[in-house]
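Explain this one:

_____
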Amino acid sequence: MTATGRIMFDVETSRILQILSAEIYDSPKAILRENVQNAYDAILMRCTAQDLKVEECRIQITVGNGVLKVEDDGIGMSEEVLRQNFWKAGSSGKRSELAQKSGVIGTFGIGALANFGVCTSLSVETRHIDATETLVSSARREDLKIAQECITFDRVVNTRGPGTTITAELDPSFAIDEKSTCDYLRQYVRFLPAPVFVNETKVSQETFDEALGGNDTAFEVIKTRGVSGGNYGGTLETAVNAQSRVRVRLTNLTLSGNPLRGELYLVQQGGQTLGFRNLFGLAPIPLSGQYGFGGFVNLDILHPTAGREALSRESIQHVTNMLNLIESSVSADLAPTDHADQNQQFQQYILAQGSIALAGNVRITVLPEKPDVKLNQVATYEPGKSKLFYSQRDPTILKRFASEQANLFHVSQTNPRRKLQLRYLNEIAKVKEVPDKPIVDRIAASKLGFDETVFLIRIRAVLLDQYLMPDVEVEFATISHGVAFQVDGKGDTLRVAIARDMPAVKVVLEFYRSAREAFDPFVQDFVREQLYQQIRDHVPSSTKLGRDALFRRIQQNKELFRVDYSDFGEAESLLADYLAGKVEFSEVVRAVGGGGRASIQRQEVRRDQVGTVEQEFPGIIEADAVTAPPATNEFEAAPPIMKEEVKTDMKVLTVSDPHPKLNNFQMFLALSDRLNKREGEFLHFPHTTKVIWGSHRVVYIFTDATGELSLYYDVELREPLGAHETGGSMFRTTTIVTADRIYVPVPKELEKAFQIIDHAKEFFVRFDTVP
């Protein structure tokens, strides 16, 4: 015999409440968020029904003494809504036409029961906009039973206006204070147009502009236009600041041709993107794009998951599609502006999309002049010159292919600019990359003019006499790609091919034809300023072997001047000064009895020994027509300016205006006659220049090209430099060698120390070479 029956379905009320609160919502404070959201939805529905402004309504939250109260002046609840939606879990009253038209936030229908996860009792007082009485009901958590009448309900006639007040007595384990309430709620209500107060603190009515610094006048709108893509459309406003950072605003949205309420307000590198529905905070939106946009997305089509910890997949996909439209449109807006050159994310985007044509305003360096030109100007830049590009850093290649006849576009070493430049040069500008070696067609001597032959002979003589290079062949050639020089070896002989059509060559040859007396100095300038950069590694003074040869030669020359009795005249002058009380006895001892090469000498500069470079060296400035190629290192060893045909008595030379020929120095000091005789040979060869100063001292340190031999020149001033005038640095070598003097540049900071205004100026010097 089989017994049959039924089992009653039942639930554990306390467990259901725990699930509704702690396991669906991410925090007990989320119940506070739910009540505030319901209050805001009620305000939206009332404002839609009665055509009111949301700003005219208010939400008041009161926290303290274990009680949480949320009050609003929204639409209120009818008895049906109170019974069927608020107190009944799983039923929502926000799916009505009015609710949808109002853009309400909540649709899940958890209702009042979710509150009991954190409170012991809950009461609600509400009045609908169409009602004449107030509904009051309450319940205690310990009395709740499924399918039992455990909730009180009363109708009250009073004068309260429309709206709802929710009062919850909190479980002691879920105490909430004012500060934590404000901190938590701001992320959801900060942008609500209705005022929201926690006790007396307002936590709403902020704008997206204020939050993202949009009122910052540094952002300038560069474009406002309609955009569309896929199923989406809208009005895009693109703004950029001085650092080329982008801010965008997408409004007047449509989806599949239908109006869509909301907007996107994003800033480049703006951090996290937060989702909103009708300005109520929902959850962060995981976005990934080239620009790193972050900010706020406020759309009616955004829906959170049940626990509100994230947005639905469909919501995220909508925003991702809109972001793609924004990035594409912003890139088109930036492309014709100078911001295209500064915004790396723009460059990365068009590179990833293959939109290389948009890179026209990205710049690239062109050698030898080093200006930055736009990529869309490359093809037409200086049409009379050949064009190549180079993507590496080899200084030899840079020197070889950048000249007066050829432009060399030097590709950046940093991505994404580098990849973008390479693709633009290859695909759009159609510029070729430098070959491994230029094509050199040497010109036979029988095809040269007389002036060209003399030019080559004089260059050969300068390399032998001034650069210690006996085994050099110099010849004219036709060199491809606008290369000015080709230097290579032929056994032990160095072969130097010079482009016959170089403008600098034509300038020197013109002096041979029209001003023969200036021809030799211009040949020396040509070698120093044009050729030296190409052959410096082969010059003996630049190698260890050459350094030893140079040192021996200097030592030999020093012996010729080791005994120079005329120098004792300076010691006699010092004795006279000592007797007159002008100098200390120790200075006389150092000068007369020192006995070393670094003994002190007194120098004197009178007013009539101050001249100008323009007077003493006519044509030196004009000679700048022969322009030096850019040095890899501006402080590397360089040859002096040779003016051995000039004799002058001047000890200080000035220049009226800064000039590139003289590296912008405006004062030059003659070294002592004794140094010129004993060590002057050193300064005839390439060297570096360093100056250190402080107190009474100015010290020049000249070092040969190998870095192993130095000459110092120590100047001791009568008057000290200023209390704060101390310093030192490397300077571009601008030594001038004449028939009887050697001049070195005076840094701007020291010009005052060597100015001669009324009477003569005296100082003391020491010098010596240090291997």
Observations:
- The chain is about 25% helix and 25% strand.
- The CA atoms of residues 89 and 110 lie 5 Å apart.
